[in-house]
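Dig into this one:

. . .
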Amino acid sequence: MTTEFIRNFCIIAHIDHGKSTLADRFLEITGTVSKERMQEQVLDDMDLERERGITIKSHPIRMMYKSNSGQEYQFNLIDTPGHVDFSYEVSRSLAACEGAILVVDASQGIEAQTLTNIYLALENDLAIIPVLNKIDLPSAHPDEVRRQVAELLGIDPSTILGCSAKTGEGVAPILERVIEQIPAPKNCIDKPLKTLVFDSKFDSFRGAVAYVRVFEGQLKRGDQIKFFSTGREYDVDEIGYFKMGRVPSKTLINGEVGYVIANVRTVSDIKTGDTITTRLNGAAEPVEGYREIKPMVFSGLYPVDKADYENLRSALEKLKLNDSSITWEPETSAALGFGFRAGFLGLLHMEIVQERLDREFNVDIITTVPNVKYKILLKNGDEVFIESPAQMPSMQEIEGINEPLAKLQIITPTDFTGVIMKLCEEKRARLAGMEYLEPTRVCLHYTIPLQEMIIDFFDRLKSCSKGYASMDYEFQGFQRETLVKMDILINGDPVDAFSTIVHRDKAYQFGLDITSKLKELIPRQQFEVAIQAAIGSKIVARTTVKAYRKDVTSKCYGGDISRKRKLLEKQKEGKKRMKQIGCVEVPQEAFLAVLSRE
């Protein structure tokens, strides 16, 4: 098929606005999947994706569509994730397309992620086809939402299509609009091969499979190829395109989307956003605009049962085969034993990895309080990056600590503006601006420290806005702040798993919260247990677990007081000695309760 009849597009939307359901209807209309084999969210093949109703990985598929004019077209659809943690998946998928269908829920209107996706699509020069979904819901107000979308894109509201992806109403005209509005790929078949890798997957029999879009030239089985970023060379073993599974073919021409198998051993050897060209007479320049994925949130993962350490290592290795954005390295903790410090894209990504470790590999883990990467400026002029409090140099060596900031965007009904502003103030966020999308909805722009946002910000935002507010964020850079490392001491011994980096103004309250929580969870001993929060040598908060008192004088019936006193003194000496040599066992529940920070 010539490039004139190829259309590459993706569906972008805020989480839960119905893009996977719309993709299902496309598959049905084009006959790619028969009605008998149809199930909800066909492209979401992970159980976790279906259960949470979210898309985690990008899913490409080829559909053949006969237009109203009778001409057959090749549609390459890439179903992209919608959650803020997976925006890197969205950006790499957008680079493989010429157009995007923007899905907006007719009952919810424009949300924070909708705006981000629009900006991403415009940055990539994509043709945007706006579509209102869920128009059949009683709560839908399509005219109002049409006006919002039209204002945002600067188009005529009457050109915006409406549909119900669930029932299939109004879906067919969207496919006709794809032919009219999304441009065909440029015809560059005679140029040297230039192919973009937008995702990869691990196959236990074939190794790493690269998902690709051919921009220039053509790719054939048996070609000798080279990856731009690593310079590594491979022989192409198999190429093909996607239907409901992989379909081998002889060639992929420019404009087509497909896969490449070339005996690459691991997914980490296939860098997302890399360019593939031929070893001889290859392209001079790679496809522009791609950067390495960097984890933003770090956390310690420790097996609950120390015997599971090797199982956890092998589980992480297997996860990394399919998810190259996870980073991990071994670390040890005096309190939790051997484990790993892992890097994630955000909190949802971290949650999903934990859940997959539990479900797919049956490994129970303790996760330490999430941390971000700090930039430390030392007095000798050096700069170091740290990912955990244990890596923090001593305060005497430090000139300053820079923490990462995020650019935050919150869309909320105006009724909740006050409580949301109060929450943001509490989280040390600074208001950068606000604009009214309509009289009842406002968009707030903030700059917020990333550490403040990754703990419980999203949950608290949802609860104080009764679920109506939506948010999106992106990393903005580093800023100098007065941060300190706080240690938790139990009977004078620091417990490394509880160490954290906090803002000096919040240190007292934070220390008080953790020591009070530990007081409830550490069982009483025969001696007093002091729980302290310390910054360096200064104690900022303390609670005490009282000792059990054994009645040693019960066997004295009356008689001389000095006998009782002697027994009490002896008990006091014994408790003092016990406190010196006694070891306080911090129960598992205490770690889980404090580290989950609920």
Summary: The chain has five domains: 3-181, 194-278, 297-368, 375-481, 485-596. Residues 41-46, 49-56 have pLDDT under 50 and may be disordered. The CA atoms of residues 81 and 413 lie 25 Å apart.
